[in-house]
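Morning. Coffee machine broken again, so started the prediction first thing and wrote up yesterday's gels while waiting. Chain of 443 residues, entered below exactly as on the submission form.
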Amino acid sequence: MNNEIFETMPVPKAYIKLALPVMMSSVLMLVYNMADTYFISATGNTDIVAAVSLCAPVFTFLIAIGDILGLGGSSFISRLLGSRRSDDAKRISVFCLCGSIVLGLLITAVLLIARTPVLKLLGSDPNTFQFASDYYTWIALGASVIIFSLVPTNLLRTEGLASLAMVGSMLGSIVNIILDPIFISALNMGAAGAAIATVIGNICADIYYIYVISRRSKCLSIDPRGFHISSSETKEVLRIGIPSSITNIMQSIGVILLNNFLLPYGNETIAAMGIVSKITMIVIMIMVSFSFGGQPLYGYLYGAGNKDRFRKVMKFAYMLVCGLGLALSCILFLLAPVLVRVFIQEASFVELAASMLRTILFGMPFIGFTMVTTCIFQSTGKASGALALSAGRQGYIYAAVLFVMSALFKYQGVVASQPVADLFSAVLAYVLLKIMLKEFIEI
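Came back before lunch.
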């Protein structure tokens, strides 16, 4: 294990060394998502495009499951390594890695048995059902490899192997991008081809991760021989992992709420918000990467009781992430009409979406503060704080603000609800931080 990163390396250098590979992986993931959408759209069949979109929540669900063992495990393992309990850390890694495979197999069985009712619940109709079923079936069959790939990318960073974790993530995305046009168009497999490419990309990443864990890692293991884990240790992984996974669930709920509140103002407003979401995702993914890239540092230093270095890391993270949020928001604010025109050229639509985008951007620095605080809570085992913030920004806080703002200010209130919710979430994050870590921090 590279203790220099965690104990002696200058804080800015250590933080960037851990966070930069996460950011690069996220950027490539963004490129992959856009490429996937492009190749599916290139079929010219809107029913295929709609079918794949309808199945997006299934993929989001698998990501949420992977986060339970990936983020929950990395938080616990970081603290164990900080306390010099490397043997215990290795046992927990076996639980997370092997557990993801077993859990994935169970989810495969459930998804296949419930395929028809789930597809109907997702909104498939006679025109999209077969395409959706093709995509859904392959994603369900690949549940284990998809869930597993999300675990080692988090665990490897706990011992400073962020670059190796990045390579695995990039490998899976690159293979997926290469295979998409082959399976979707050349082999004329459509929606099924997109899913198969995704599964194969994850298999390649999994093989790489198994090799790295077996040959390069000193603190992780996938060997179940002699494995044992107590109920308290299992709870420790789950009590951080479950709140972490809720973020993905809340994001889906937030989108559903927003679309319903925009519907009375016309489908054009929903389409415009969809474009705005794609643009703001650039800023959000960068902030997420730099927020959670430093998670191993927090966990290690908290477990080691190194309060002084912990505070230095925390202050640097707030300055970096909030500063990035502010700087990138200013750039996007100025370029709003240009960015919207990349998607749609119609003047009235550009004006509508650009106005939405500029309003949403006011919340970005507040999002940065909330993200860093959420990461701190997850890393230090403060499950209740992590849960409150994970479920808040696009969950109960957003819902309450949306109802009030829409009643008071109609359309403008609906659009402004997200940055207002971001402000309230940041205030809550500050209060919880002062209460839950008052003996460990000074802010």
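Residues 392-436 form the longest helix (45 residues). Going to sketch it on the whiteboard this afternoon.
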